Amino acid sequence: MKGRQLIGPILTGVILVTLYCPVLIWLIGVWLDSPYYSYGFLILPVSAFITWTRRKELIITKPLSAGAAVFAIGLVAYVLGSIWKIYWLWAFSLLIVTLGLLLYFRGAKAARSMLFPICFLIFMIPLPFLDSIAIPLQSITTYCSASIATAVGIPVTRTGAEIRLADSAFIIGLPCSGMNILISLLALAAVFVYFLKGSYYKRGSLFVLVFPIAILANIMRIVLLLVIAHFWGTEAALTFFHGFSSLLIFLIAFLCLFLLSRFFGCGFRGMKTN
């Protein structure tokens, strides 16, 4: 009977791999080309690792037939995304389908224990509204960076998304608006907060604080770029500093998040390997 019980899940797995291979190929192309999602290759391994640490919680409790309805909704999303070329919906259907399968084969308790690694997969999917958010963020970043540079004695003029020094100009593009740092920091913060001990309120507050932290960190990066360009020239700013500044500012932003977690009294909890 155990062998027969495995036939359904195995066949389902084969069908899903076949269905989602084109989705994965599309996602890989996005991760290679998008300035926002270059970290996308890490999402699946991290999600798989968290699932592995909680694998003993996948014991069958009471399978829910309602999982078949959730699974069907996911398949509808897959078909609509494929037909209408709504690629983010095409990829997002994987989350719905996975949740439906867990409910149907393993029950509500197992699905609840795997809810985080499933939801974490959303960070690998390019969302359609990012540029519409990046445009006002671009304006805020440009204005604040130019204002701070002026306040510290760097003579700059601002025109739209351009900040001009005496002998050079810097255009703050949409990726440099802070959106790339924000998205990648949100993904890292999600895992960081997941492994913290503390109330939902404290951990939720830490995650929300990623937004101002990422924006302020990116503004600091641009101000430093302007300072270096003013004192040491544009070439020094664009070759020496610009190359590693994103990583440096990202690490500083995460350090701020870590210090805030200590301030909130949130320590690390052990991983459940069972």
Structural notes for this entry:
- The protein is built from 11 helices and 3 strands, in the order αααααααβββαααα.
- The protein has 274 residues and is mainly alpha-helical.
- The protein folds into 2 domains: 123 residues, no CATH class; 134 residues, no CATH class.
- Strands 1-2-3 form a 3-stranded antiparallel sheet, with helices on one face.
- α3 packs antiparallel against α4.
- It is elongated, with a radius of gyration of 23 Å.
Task: Please describe the topology of this protein.
Elements: H1 2-33, H2 43-53, H3 66-83, H4 87-105, H5 108-113, H6 115-120, H7 130-151, E1 157-159, E2 162-164, E3 169-171, H8 179-194, H9 200-208, H10 210-232, H11 234-263
Antiparallel strand pairs: 1-2, 2-3
Brief rundown of the structure:
This protein is mostly helical and 274 residues long. It has eleven helices and three strands. The chain has a three-stranded antiparallel sheet with strand order 1-2-3, with helices on one face.
Structural class: mainly alpha
Radius of gyration: 23 Å
- Note the beta-strand portion: under 5%
What is the helix content? Answer: over 70%
Strand order of the largest sheet: 1-2-3
Terminal residue distance: 26 Å
Shape: elongated
Give helix and strand order, one letter per element, not per position. HHHHHHHEEEHHHH
Q: Total number of helical segments?
A: 11
Q: Please mark out the parts with pLDDT under 50 across 5 or more consecutive residues, or reply none.
A: none
Mean pLDDT: 87
Total DSSP E strands = 3
